Each structure stands twice: as structure tokens, then as C-alpha cells.
Predict the structure.
Amino acid sequence: MANLSEMVTGAVAAGQRVAAVDAAVITKLTQMAGDLAVNLLIAVLILALTVVAAKWASRVVRRVVGRVRGVRQDPTVVSFIAQVVRVGVYVIGFIAVLQRLGVQTTSIIAVLGAASLAVGLALQGTLSNVAAGVVLLILRPYRVGDVIEVGGVSGSVQRLDLFVTQISNANNHKIVVPNGKVLGDVIINLSGQGTRRVEIHFTVGYGSNLKQARHVIATTAAKHDKVLGDPVPWAGVTGLLDSAVQVSLHAWVKSDDWWQTQADLYEQVKVALDEAGVEIPFPHQVQMDYAPPSAGPDPTEPFPQPPEPIVPPKRKAAPKPKLSLPRRKAAK
């Protein structure tokens, strides 16, 4: 009986220990589940706050930067700065979410650094375009809406991204130029200044009155309502061509009026020269009667013969010296 009671007591004690372990495990699991739920809830709240904060910061930065006098008229720079701020807020929020979930962000940052190095080596050309885009956004040699000439093409700038510059030419062709090529080439900003000079070369005949031609050209240009009065339009002789005299016109206009004013001056000056009786010649050839002289008689004296070349006498070779070897005395 004593053994039976001891066995029952041991079994009850073992059961109590097992029940205590199970209760501890359940309590631990419950605590872990509660902590995970709390962390997930906090992570979701941080993520939601990150999205809201990114939009708010982007909007505030766009508003503040838009008030700066140097960049408020350039939407490209404003959008770029707002986008950088938005991405920065997203990165900070994601790191906070990962830390709240218990992820070791140090190792993740190290892995991302190694991956970014490998990607950077593989995308050297693309990253060079990104660096060139940042430099273009900082230096701003042109803005959206400017008419530029770069890489052998010209047109109006429609968009400036981190990778490419989008241009639209006069035929409404979409031209995409990499920023690396733009930064490494000569950039001609045709509308970067407030005014621009119209330069047209006219030709008049050699028999025309040049002073009259200059007066007609300059006066016609000055009467145009888009031509500026300061500087005054100038006309002068700039070349003597094969069939005409070249008279050039220099007139200053606003950059936006350059194309139409140039076309108007071509037409108006042509009409004014015709009314003034000034000839505008075209390339022509003059036929002339040419009679070559008759051939002369044959020469009576023979042609002089070239002198014979003088051959220098050959030099005799000097006799070679004979080497005498000493004779050995015969042994006695």
C-alpha cells in the first residue's frame, strides 16, 4: 500500500509539473502573440503615418520652394526636390517599421549597400546620366519651354528627368537625348536671352545703287512692329559674290517673335527692293566669243640637248697590307 500511495503521489506531482510547464508555455505564447499583435498594429500605424507624412512633406516643400524667386518659374526643379523629399520620408518610415517588427536593419543596410555597389558597376552609363541630370538641375543651363540646340538637334524642351531630356522640334517630333550626352556636348539656348538678333543676307546686282539698297532694307526693317528700336536695325555690304553684292540686315527682336519676324522681313524687304527698282540677281553665266590665236611656225633650230651627266672617276682600291707571321726556328 505504501508503494502504491507513493506511485500515486509521484504521478500527481508529475502531472502538476507538466501542467505548470504547459501553463508557462501557453502564457509565453500568449504574451508573444500579444506583443506581435501590438508590434504589427504599431507598424501599420507607422506605415500609414509615413504615407501621410510623405505627401504632406512633399506638398509643403513644393509650396515653400515655389516661393523662391530663382526656381518658382521652373517646375522641373520644384518637382525634383519634392520627389527627393518624398522618397526620403518613405525610406525613414520603412526603416522604422522594420525595427518595430524586430528585423535587424544593420544587416539589411549592409546587404543593400553591397547590392547597390554591384548594380552601380553594372549600370555605369545609366548612373552617369543620373549624375548629369542632377548637375543639369543644379546649373540649369535651360528650362522647360526653352528652345535649345544640343547633340545636333534643336527644339523646345518638354521635360527634364534624371535620365533624359525630352525635346519637341518644329515638326512635333519627340526627341529624347540622354543627359550624359547633353552635359558632354555644347548646349545652345536659343531662347535663353530676352532678345535675339535676326540676320538675313540679301543680294543686289553690281549695277545697283548700294546706298539706296541699304536704305531700303534698313527702313523696311525699322517699320516692322516687332523689330526693336534699340539697337537700331543695321544694313551693310558684307560680301562681293560672283554674281551679286551681299547686303546683310541685322535687326533685334524678342526671342518669342524671332521666327515670324524673320519670315516677315524676307517678304517685306523683297517687295520693297522690287518697288525701288533694285535688282536681286540670280546666279548666271555670261557667254563670251573666244577665238584662240593660230599656232606659230615650227622652230628652225634643233632643240638644245641636255648636257651629259658628269661621272666621277672611280677610285682605285688601296692595296691590302700583307701580314708576315714570324717563322719558328727548327729544333736542332
Observations:
- Residues 2-66 form the longest helix (65 residues).
- Strands lie at 147-150, 153-160, 164-168, 174-178, 188-189, 195-204, 234-240, 245-254.
